[in-house]
Structure formats: C-alpha cells, structure tokens
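dumping this here before i forget
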Amino acid sequence: MSETIHIYHTNDLHSHFANWPSIKALLTERKRWHEEEGDTCLILDIGDHVDRSHPFTEGSAGRGNIALLNEAGYDVVTIGNNEGITLTKQELNDLYVQADFEVVVGNLKDASGFRPKWAKPYHIIKTRGGTKIGLVGATAEFTPFYKRLGWTISEGKDAIMEAVEEIKGQTDLIVCLSHLGIKDDELLAEMCPDIDVILGAHTHHVFHEGKVIGDTLLGAAGKFGMYVGHVTIENGLENKKAYLIETDSLRNPDESFDDCLMEEGKNQLNEPIFFNSEMLKAEWFKASRLSDLFGEAMLEFSQADCAIFNAGIFMDNLPEGQTTRYNFHKMLPHPINPCLIELTGAELKEIYLQSLNTEWPHIELKGLGFRGAIFGNIIHVNMKMEGHKLYINDELAVHDQVYRLITLDMFTFGYFFPTLKRAQKTYFMPEFIRDVFSQFFRSKALK
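structure:
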C-alpha cells in the first residue's frame, strides 16, 4: 500500500446543527482536494448524529439527519444509542432506507436473531490504488432498552473482534467505528491488535493528536460538532497520524442553518393536542400546577402508587390556547422514558430521604438523557414525610410492603439513587415523558 489515505470522522453530533454548514463545506472541499491528488478519502460518522431533542430530528424521526449525511458525502457510519433506543423499532428500520452510505454495526439483531437489512457487521472498500480497507463497528449495549424495543444487543467488543477475525485475511487496513466509549476502545486496542485505527464515540472524549496503544491509533472528536477528526495513513501502515480540526475556526457559509431547521421541525410538529385554558408555568424550585398535572399523568399512565421526578425537566411553559406536539417537545425535549419500579416501604423511605439533598436543585446536569439546564427540586407525588414516618397516598408506609413507584429512567442509572439501579423495574418504551403528558391532555380533551 503506497497511496495516502485520508479518513475524516465525526461523532456525537446530537443534532447540534449550528456548525453543520462548516462541517459539510470542509468535508466536501477536502474530499475534492484529496481525490484530485489521487489519494483516497473516507468520511465516517461514529453514531449519535440523531438526537430527538431537536425539533427537526423529532419531526422527521431522524430521517432529516440521514439526508444531511448524504449531502455531506459520508461513506460509512455506525449507530449510537440515540439512533438505537430513542426510535421505535420501525423508525430505526426506516431510518436508513434513503441512505447513500453503509451502516456497520455488528452487535445488533432483532429478537429472532436476524440482523436488520440496513446493518452489516463489516464493509470492505477497495481503493483506486488497490488497498482493501475493512470497516467494522458496534454500539453501546443498553440491553434492557433494546430488549423492550424488540432488539437483541450483544457485547460490542466481541462483535468487533469476530468481524475482524473474518476479514483480516481479506484486507490491508482495518478501521473500527466504535460507539462503545473510551474504556472499551482502549481495551479493544489491547485485545485486538489486528485493528489499525479505532475511531471512538459515546463518552464524548477528545484525542487532539490521537492516542497510540501498541500499533493501533485511536481517534476521537468530542461532541456536538465542535471538531472534525482527520486521520492520515501513508507508507503502508508505517505512518499513521491523527489530529482534530476545530469547527469554530472554519468559515460558516450559512449562519441561519440551525434556525431554518428549527422552523422546519416546528412545522412538522404542528399537530394539535388540546386547547389550554390557562398558561402553565414551568417552575424549577417548587411544585407548580404544571408539575402537579405531570405527576397525575405519570400515575394514570402507569397505575403506580407514587411518583418522583425533578422539576428541572420542564424547559418551557405550556402556553394558553391551542397546543401542539411542538409545544410539548419544547417543554420536554428529553429522550427520557418513564420507568416503573417495585420498592418496599423501607426502600421508598430511603429514596425519599436521599431526594432531600439540598445540593441537587442547582446541579447543572449533563448526560443521562437530560436535556435541561439545571436539575431543579425533586417533586414527590403521593409521598410525604411527617416526622420520621413516610406516607404513601396518605397512608403510613409499611416497612416490608411492596409499592410501585413511577419515575424517570435517568434515576435508574445509579448516579442519584443507587437503590434504583438494583431494583426490579420496567421501562416504558417507546414512550417518552412528553408522549405520556401530551396523551394525558389529549384524552382529557376527548372526554
């Protein structure tokens, strides 16, 4: 292999489109440059390009994102958890119908054990110079969520190593698209030295000049389109380099691009829900009429005994007058699912006491599906403490009696309430909390 190969990569855009015109212009120009020089240029995305917190993505069920990838000339992508578990099974199966690129993800199958038509465990490209490049990929294993949606997800590193073993005799260069996170990428480099380049994602890590483990080069470009990664490979595999291009340093040919997509998404979400007789104000540091109604909606939806959630989820007021899907999306943009958990009275009391942490309301929370600004106060529904006693629905909680708590899936990941990570639970999918709330009002309007 004597030719020069250029690989450009993005990851974890999460539908942050402000820099997309700059990214598209860069990729289009660079691909033309390299091909005019007789070099090979590949453009890859490592997942979580889709994020339903943006109205354009919500309104198009992610297909608008695929159109953008097509326009920018992407060659191969893998999926992230936002593509995998925030869309219904049908929406994910429809997502890549119009894709002009290949999708490599080796660890996803349907419940019957069959790989979806749009996914491949690997893809091999033969360059004009005769180099055979094998591309493998996998995504993070959010097993309970995939299972609820009708998918089977397996261990990502195992799937990648299996694909590498199958193609290593057929290729000159192996590139891995890994939406597994930095720790798994580092382990993978040690476990599978046949991989030449690992391009990472999911944990939003940044390698400004790459990272080398053994003979494997790791690259990662952060999040939100702040960087585009560029890997060059010359002189066979002897000279591999990685660096990042900061998109803020690029000329943006269309400053209004994101605003236009916002407006397009708003139009797509113009479906009426109900006529609201009064404006419902979002309050982050106290209970409100809005939070009361949300709690009522969650209880009615789940038939739970009590509920707990944070007031910071409400990102906008619910306006007076005709409300639409857009209003509910703007108020609750999070890809958060309801979760029903069975707990004893003693466990619920422990959860209640933990929720009184005075530092939580002002936390600027990032991740866990949360798309808000700050955490806000914890809201308790059908739960209260009097003295040292917990009451559920105005009755004294029995120490060993099992109760049903409805809450947000992000509370089950162990960050706030370790008990909830271990407890018996049921995730409601594909419903997001905004779907539960809008259906509550829609059903009331029909009565």
